[in-house]
Design brief:
The complex is a heterodimer. Helices cover about 0% and strands about 50% of the residues of chain A. Chain A has no helices and 11 strands. In chain A, a hairpin with a 2-residue loop joins strand 5 (about 40-50) and strand 6 (about 55). Chain A is globular and about 40 Å long. Chain B is mainly beta. The model of chain B has no long low-confidence stretch (mean pLDDT about 95). The chains are: A mainly beta, B mainly beta. The interface of A and B includes residues 31, 44, 90, 106 and 108 of A.
Chain lengths: ~110, ~110
Amino acid sequence: EAQVTQNPRYLITVTGKKLTVTCSQNMNHEYMSWYRQDPGLGLRQIYYSMNVEVTDKGDVPEGYKVSRKEKRNFPLILESPSPNQTSLYFCASSSRQIYNSPLHFGNGTRLTVT
Amino acid sequence: KNQVEQSPQSLIILEGKNCTLQCNYTVSPFSNLRWYKQDTGRGPVSLTIMTFSENTKSNGRYTATLDADTKQSSLHITASQLSDSASYICVVSATSGTYKYIFGTGTRLKVLA
C-alpha cells in the first residue's frame, strides 16, 4: 500500500532534549516536506526536499533540521526543543514526474514539549 | 502577500443536505488549486486539483469550481453523509516547479444525523 509513515504518533518531551521524528515513503517520490499545524494557523511548511541531498527552508524553519540521505526517508530533527514547538507535525511527499501530483500526507506526530 | 482565506470557519448541516465551502486566494503567480479533506487525527487527503484553465472538477459527491479571474474557488458537497464530517483545506500552489504551497486554515464541517 502506498503510504507515508511517520513515527512516533505521539511524543512528550522536555525542553532541550534532542528528538527526531522519522518519515518514510514507499512511492519513490522525489519531493518530501514537513509541516506543522497549529489551531487557527493552518499548515505551515518547515522544510522541504526536492530530491536526495537537496533540502531548503520553508516558512518556519527556526529550531528544526532535516536531512535527505536516502530518497525514501526525511527525518525532522529538533536539536533543543522548546515549548513553542508543541504542535501537530505532518510529513508529505509527492512525485515530480507526474504533473500536478497530489501531496500524500502521513498521519501526523503530535509533539508536546514541557 | 500570498494568502488563502476560507469561509465559513465552521459549518453544521443535516445529513443529506448540500453545502458549499469557499476559498479566496491572493497567490501570484498561480499554478494550481487543491482541496484536501482532513479527518480528525489524520493527515489531509487530496480531493481535487485544478489548474487555471479548469473551471470545475468532480470527485464523487465533491465538486470544485475555480474562477481564476476573481481568484475564488468553491467546494460543493452533494447529499452529505456523516463521513463527510471533517476539515476541508484549500491549498494554492505558486509557480510550478517551486513546490511552494499556501494553505488555508480550513472549514470544519459537521454533518448531523
